[in-house]
């Protein structure tokens, strides 16, 4: 899938900003369906290592991606205060465990830098938002799962 356009025709992009420990991250708001409180995660046998299990959100069974594993961050137990960002890729809905959602920000084109201009082949990162209080990495959901992980997840979820 192509990289989403950044600040097309002067219209600011909206980002959902969330925290993973001390790190602030973001997703394009257009990829986010909702944010919900943490619920019990049901383990999913034979799922890829970065999939913690599945959750039922309004009757839809959604795989939960462990961002700490994906980004090699220190692991910790999931807390009741954590939140699930329900988002979608071109192939499926996903739930991302985050410590907390902190903000929705608008960024104009001059505040956004495409990842390739910083470091070609920067994995999982679509760009960087330059805000007054620091930089925020904007993640690309389409790259969170490798082809092998997608196929493994499809097989694990087939009986559901």
| SSE string | EEEEEHEEEEHEEH
CATH architecture: Beta Barrel
Relative helix content: 10-25%
Overall pLDDT score: 85
> How many helix segments?
3
User: Percent of residues in beta strands?
Assistant: 35-45%
Task: Detail the poorly predicted runs.
Answer: 1-10
The CATH class, by name, is Mainly Beta
User: How many distinct beta strands?
Assistant: 11
How many angstroms separate the termini?
27 Å
Protein name: Chemotaxis protein CheW
Pfam families: CheW
GO biological process, one term: signal transduction
Organism: Sulfuriferula plumbiphila
Structural summary, described in words:
There is one protein chain. The protein is globular. The chain contains three helices and eleven strands. The chain has helices spanning 67-70, 115-118, 147-157, and strands at residues 13-20, 23-28, 32-37, 51-57, 60-65, 83-88, 93-98, 100-107, 112-114, 125-131, 134-139. Residues 1-10 have low confidence and may be disordered. The longest helix has 11 residues, at 147-157. Strands 8-1-2-11-10-9 form a six-stranded mixed β-sheet. Strands 3-6-7-5-4 form a five-stranded mixed β-sheet, with no helix packed on it. The protein has a single domain (8-157), classed as CheA-289, Domain 4 (OB fold (Dihydrolipoamide Acetyltransferase, E2P), Beta Barrel), CATH 2.40.50.180. The protein has 160 residues and is mainly beta. A hairpin with a 2-residue loop joins strand 4 (51-57) and strand 5 (60-65).
């Amino acid at each position: 899938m192509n990289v989403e356009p950044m600040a097309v025709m002067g219209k600011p992009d909206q980002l959902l900003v969330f925290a993973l420990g001390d790190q602030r991250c973001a997703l394009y708001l257009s990829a986010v369906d909702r944010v919900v409180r943490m619920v019990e995660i049901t383990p999913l046998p034979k799922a890829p290592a970065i999939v913690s299990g599945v959750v039922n959100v309004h009757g839809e069974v959604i795989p939960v991606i462990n961002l700490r594993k994906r980004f090699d961050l220190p692991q910790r137990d999931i807390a009741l205060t954590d939140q699930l960002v329900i988002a979608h890729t071109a192939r499926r809905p996903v739930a991302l465990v985050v410590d907390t959602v902190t903000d929705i920000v608008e960024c104009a084109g001059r505040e956004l830098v495409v990842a390739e201009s910083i470091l070609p082949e920067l994995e999982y990162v679509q760009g960087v938002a330059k805000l007054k209080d620091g930089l925020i990495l904007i993640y690309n959901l389409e790259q969170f799962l490798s082809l092998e992980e997608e196929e493994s997840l499809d097989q694990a979820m087939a009986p559901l």
